[in-house]
Design brief:
Shape: extended
Largest sheet: 3 strands, antiparallel
Strand order of the largest sheet: 1-3-2
Oligomer: single chain
Helix content: over 70%
Number of helices: 9
Order of helices and strands: HHHEHHEEHHHH
CATH superfamily of one domain: Winged helix-like DNA-binding domain superfamily/Winged helix DNA-binding domain
């Protein structure tokens, strides 16, 4: 008897039978969804959202980051970070503060409650990771890690190359101004 949930059976059938050679990105996405879902269920037992987990993990490695730094490290937009931090502040996990030497930047600091969550939540993530690699031999896990890190590095390089090829905001504004003038009648352009 198969003990996997119907949803998992469907995903596995899809990958093994319907599209065994589909793009790697789809396979990584489905694996990520399964890992995230497993962790979300465990975090919910402790009334912590996955979004808060993302920020807590970063802050446990070193808090007193600016909101902007936290956004960059989490890979999310600043308004998303702002909303999450407001909620986390209400829950007593963090506090936001400006310091005397730099009144513009808002720094994020863990509270003792936020720090204590680490001891309860990190084991949950470790458990999910243990389950995910159950039955997989250590050399295969090492290879998978190496491959995924190489993919991340390749994609980061490509993103950097794309950014270098993209025109600056000033260049775009100049091109738009030229286009606008081309569309205007001659007498308006002379004014």
């Amino acid at each position: 008897m198969n003990r996997e949930p119907p949803r998992t059976q469907s995903i596995l059938r899809h990958w093994r039978e319907a599209v065994p050679n589909d793009r790697l990105a789809h396979l990584v996405k489905d694996a990520t969804r399964a890992l995230v879902r497993a962790l979300q269920m465990r975090l919910a037992d402790h009334a912590v959202s996955f979004g808060h987990w993302t920020f807590l993990r970063i802050l446990w490695e070193g808090d007193r980051l600016t909101q902007r730094e936290l956004s960059e490290r989490a890979g999310v937009m600043e308004p998303t970070t702002f909303s999450a931090l407001k909620a986390m502040e209400r829950l007593g996990y963090v506090r936001r503060r400006k310091f005397a030497g730099d009144r513009k930047k808002v720094y994020v600091l863990l509270t003792s409650k936020g720090r204590l969550l680490r001891n309860r939540l990190v084991p949950l993530a470790e458990d999910v990771n243990r389950i995910a690699v159950r039955g997989i031999k250590p050399p295969a896990i090492s290879t998978t890690r190496a491959v995924l890190l190489a993919i991340i590095e390749n994609m980061a390089r490509e993103e950097l190359a794309d950014e270098r090829r993209m025109p600056s905001t000033r260049e775009l504004a100049q091109k738009n101004e030229v286009r606008r003038k081309r569309r205007l009648p001659k007498r308006i352009q002379e004014d």
